[in-house]
Design a protein that fits this description.
The chain is an alpha/beta fold and 459 residues long. It folds into three domains: 74 residues, no CATH class; 219 residues; 142 residues, no CATH class. The protein is built from eleven helices and 19 strands. The strands form three sheets. It has a 13-stranded parallel β-sheet with strand order 1-2-3-5-7-9-11-13-15-16-17-18-19, covered by helices on one side. Strands 4-6-8 form a three-stranded parallel β-sheet, with no helix packed on it. Strand 15, helix 8 and strand 16 form a beta-alpha-beta unit. The chain is elongated. The protein starts with a helix and ends in a 6-residue tail after the last helix. InterPro entries: At1g61320/At1g61330-like, F-box-like_dom_sf, F-box_dom, LRR_At1g61320_AtMIF1, LRR_dom_sf.
Length: 459
């Protein structure tokens, strides 16, 4: 990256002095007959130098040398971002300028050696003809990386918690990715568009990375993934149109799976090579078949009193991880049931985390009365299922909710059960804790127990 900036700085400096063709020269002590011009470089070297520059800087090199006027037209990365720099023009003017710029560049570009093509702009459905043309250019040039992010105007197309308005979203043509002479795309990034996957979707057998963000899926996503036999990284974020992620076929090469804020009833994947799993959303059944190579899991549940319990008891697929990052929102006041019983339920994990070395646990508790939740330390019982734990990071955040119904708040006491489990953590070396609330005496006793078990503890 530093080399790129140096090259750009040198070329910008050349623009301010010397005429066209008056290029880098040796020192004055060298004979004039041996003067060096940039155009003397081999054509391939000139192309490589140009490709290391950002597109805008590469285009400026046409002012430096006649021979470089054509080099930028073979630039391998065409990335257009309307979000920066931000001008004071109206949105309609910005969109018009952006469309004009993109059309001008792709008309002059040779289409050869294109590696990456990205669009990021708040374009609406009426611009679909232009977007279609850009995608045709990218697919004809066989770009390995394609990104279409039509991020703007979400307020115009949002149609509720469960999805987006279908008519207002640009439909990305998946069929355009199928080239007659074989697949070419390796990474696909889509945001704020709609797709219609089907079993006959082709051209995705070389796809290694797929990111869908705020995408409306019309059809079965399993039909799309069926054709992604080389997929290594899959991210599904805030997508709509999906009721269940039940993928019956094998995704053996998948290494990273992220599912975030998708309102589905269950998740089921067959992923024998999965190494990292991330989930953010509601408490739902999650099954990952055959993931014996899973090393890291990150789970963040939305507000649910059984979130902690669910992490340690109801997702057996993650019990073999070495690193677990967990975050949950919990209510310290309960309208139905007894908070005390929920704490004790959460302290009985059903699966052993025998390989777990690093546990990061962040819990946000909604409380009506401050300084009344020292009983949450009983959750340390979950550590009984991780006898090989070496590093523990445990952080609490209390959200104070004032109310006159103080009689329903739980004001449990430290029972000593949390401290008693420390004797089972013989490998624990480092503990970082923050945010806990308790009386001085209770806290001193608990902190002392942690420090005896973990000499490098930080409270």
């Amino acid at each position: 990256m530093e080399d790129d900036y140096e090259a750009a700085d040198k070329l910008r400096g050349l623009e301010h002095h010397r005429g066209l063709g008056d290029m880098l020269r040796p020192s004055t002590t060298t004979a004039s007959s041996s003067s060096f011009h940039m155009e003397d470089l081999v054509e391939d070297i000139q192309t490589i130098i140009s490709s290391l520059l950002p597109l805008k800087e590469a285009a400026r090199t046409s002012l430096v040398s006649r021979s470089w006027r054509m080099d930028w037209r073979q630039h391998p990365n065409l990335c257009f971002d309307a979000t920066k720099p931000r001008s004071k023009d109206k949105d309609c003017v910005k969109r018009a300028k952006f469309i004009e710029t993109v059309n001008s560049v792709i008309q002059q570009h040779s289409g050869r050696g294109l590696n990456e093509f990205r669009i990021k702009c708040g374009l609406r459905e009426e611009s679909s003809d232009h977007i279609d043309g850009w995608i045709r250019f990218a697919t004809a040039a066989k770009a390995k990386i394609i990104g279409i992010n039509l991020w703007s105007s979400r307020k115009h197309k949002y149609s509720g918690v469960f999805g987006w308005s279908r008519w207002s979203l640009y439909r990305f043509p998946l069929d355009a990715l199928g080239a007659p002479d074989g697949p070419f795309i390796q990474s696909l990034f889509l945001s704020d568009v709609s797709i219609e996957p089907h079993l006959d979707t082709c051209g995705l057998t070389k796809l290694k990375r797929l990111v869908l963000h705020s995408v409306q899926i019309v059809g079965d996503i399993a039909d799309l993934l069926l054709n992604c036999s080389s997929l290594e990284d899959l991210k599904l974020i805030a997508c709509s149109g999906v009721t269940a992620l039940n993928i019956p076929h094998q995704l053996n090469k998948l290494r990273h799976l992220l599912i975030s804020h998708i309102y589905v009833q269950m998740i089921c994947f067959h992923v024998t090579g999965l190494a990292h799993f991330e989930y953010k959303g509601n408490v739902i059944p999650i099954v990952l078949h055959g993931c014996s190579k899973l090393e890291k899991a990150s789970v963040k549940f939305k507000q649910d009193d059984e979130a902690l319990d669910h992490t340690f008891t109801a997702i057996p697929s993650i019990s073999g991880v070495k690193e677990l990052n967990m975050r949950a929102d919990m209510n310290a006041y309960v309208y139905y049931g007894d908070w005390v019983s929920q704490v004790h339920t959460a302290t009985r994990p059903t699966h052993m985390f025998l390989n777990l070395r690093l546990l990061t646990c962040k819990i946000r508790t909604c409380t009506r009365v401050p300084n009344s939740h020292s009983g949450l330390l009983q959750l340390a019982h979950c550590l009984n299922s991780a006898p090989q734990l070496e590093t523990l990071q445990l952080h609490m955040l209390y959200a104070y909710v004032p109310t006159h119904r103080c009689d329903v708040c739980w004001t449990g006491e430290v029972t000593g059960e949390g401290a008693s489990c420390m004797g089972r953590l013989g490998r624990l070396r480092t503990v970082h804790m923050s945010g806990f609330r308790a009386t001085g005496l209770r806290w001193s006793c608990c902190a002392a127990s942690w420090r005896r078990a973990a000499p490098r503890s930080s409270v």
